[in-house]
Every structure is written in C-alpha cells, then in structure tokens.
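User: My instructor asked us to take a sequence, write out its structure as tokens, and then describe one feature of it. I'm not sure where to start. Here is the sequence I was given:
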Amino acid sequence: MPRKGENIYKRKDGRWEGRYIRSYDAENRAKYAYVYGKTYSEVKYKLAEERSSSKKASVTNRSSLTYNELLDLWLHSSQLNTKESTHARYTHLINTHIKPQLGKYALSIISTEIIEDFIELQLVEGRLDNNGGLAPKTVTDILTIVKSTIEYAEYKGLPVACNLSKLTIKKKEKEMRVLTQKEQDALISVLVDAMDLYKFGVLLALYTGIRVGELCALQWEDFNLTQATLKIRKTLQRIQDTRNRAFSKTKIVITEPKSQCSMREIPLPAFVVDMAKKFIANPKAYILTGTDRFVEPRTMQNRFKSYVKNSGIADANFHALRHTFATRCVEVGFEIKSLSEVLGHANVNITLNRYVHSSFELKYSNMNKLNLEI
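Assistant: Let's start with the prediction itself. The structure tokens for your sequence are:
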C-alpha cells in the first residue's frame, strides 16, 4: 500500500516505485510517469525532483501556452468541484465551439477584441448546422467558460491580455407558457381518464411544480403518504459521455438536483395522496414504471405531448406544468416564500421574476378592487 497521498509503492521484486502525473490527454485523463529506487527515501527524493522539473518547465513555457492548453488545464481543474452533468456540458461547449475558433491562439495574444468578435460570431452564425446563431443562453454559457478560464489563468500567474468584465450577453425575455384554467381543466380530464402511472406522474408535476428530471428519478421511498409529503433528493438526465473521444455518445446519470435549494420536501394535496395510494409499490420502484426500470425525460416529454394533443389545447412542453403550478399558487394567495421553497429556488426573486405569471383574469379582478362607487 502507498503512504497516503504519495503514490509510492514497494514492488514484489523488492524495489520501490513512485508514480506522478506527467500530463493530461485530450480527454483530461492523467498520463503517469514512474521512478524507481532501492529505498523508499530514494524514490521520494526522485519524485520531488521530477515534480520540481515539471513545474520549472511549466513556468518556462508559459509565454507559449495556447488557449487550447489552458482550456484543458481549466477543464481538469474544474472537474474537482462540478457535477458530472455540468462538466459534460463544459466539455461539449469547449470541444464544439470554443476550441475550433480560439484554441490555436497563444494565450498571451488573446485580446478583448478577439473574444468580442468570437462571441458576436456565435450569436450570428454559431450553429454547427450553419443555420444561424446559437441561442443567447448557450452563448452566455460559452462566455461564462471563457471568463472562468481567463480568471484561472490570472490565478496561475499566466500572461493575460484581455479584460472581459464588461462583456455580457443581452438575453431576449422568453415568454413562458402557462396553461389557462380552461386548458388545465381539459388536460386534467385526459389524465384522470383511465389513469396510469405516466398520467399520475404528469398530474403530480402539475400540483407540485417538480421538474421532469426530478419526476423521472422519483421512487416510492421518496413519498411519505402518512405525512402527505414528497422528498426531492435526486434528478435524472441524459448527458454526453466525456469518456467517448468523439463525444458522440450519451449516458443516463442520476445525481443530486441542480442546487442545494432543490433538495426539498413538498407537502402534497390530499387528493394527490389518495391517487398515490392506488399505485404505490416497492419502495425502490420508480413511480413512473412501478419497477426498477426508470423512464428518461425525453420519453416523458413525448408522453406529455400526446396528452396535450388529446386534450385539444395549444402546444406546451413539460416545463409549462411548473409555470402553471406557480401561477395557480399565486392566484389562490399562496405565500411567496413558501412557494419559493416548494419550487426549490434560492430566493423569492427567482420565483417572482421567472415563474410567476399573473393571468389577465387576476389582473382584471385586482383592478376592479380599485372600483369607485359614484
């Protein structure tokens, strides 16, 4: 066994062997080198020399470091404190958008103007299918990575010639789809007709505001039907498999939700508890199947689309259920702080600004409260 943190082993032939990271490959996997000696102390000394040489070489080559190399260094460093899904997203954006355009530049000559031109290009013609620009949200994510790598370079004492503090992306406010009460009633009629586990899942999302990934990860052990509560502790999503060199394969991961605030306990309406009792199964079973097999978000999205079509209402995606839940809660006077916690938001401003969309009927009703009798 090695001594903790040293990577020094005693071999079967009596010699000692030390291992150290020499470099990282294109997929951020460590490449190791080895030193050998007759004693533990000899190997420890050799390791210290090799690591010192590597650091000196790094300092010597700083001026010729390419942005490509910096991206690899940053990506490896960020892997230590980011979720697997986030790291996969970073890897995808770096390899498909950032490296092809900026990777060839020496870090020392990348200027503010070069980054500004790059960002503008992504907004205008950044799509890989040559069909226009990327969405502002995607470009914002790309800019976030670029800014983080520059900050990382400054932290490492590398030569940086640009200032990106003033560079931002103007986002277009996207109108949120919220079901009207009439549309909601039509959808519920479809759901309660010959209700199965899939339909129950949609109804659950409509009356709790949970995300599709959270729904797909739910197991019956997450319910406490005696206390009428539901615990959200994980989410399921399909991400790119960064172990695949071409980044062409994906995989399903079940992880903690997107933030600590998303780990929450939600009180359930009595009628939802009554419906759940009809389907409850083995605690380890997924609620959408009743077995140990899960359903992935895309499948659930397609199921939901079919229910929307059958109900005869205008097109909507699964996330509209979350917007609709928040809106109905506000309409019936739900206390905003409580609603924010049920939705898993960090603060009430996110709830108010992003998800709560007051209906015209509610605005009309509130305006009439100002009525003056003459």
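For the description part of your assignment, you could build on this observation: The first strand starts at residue 8 and ends at 10. Try explaining in your own words what that tells you about the chain.
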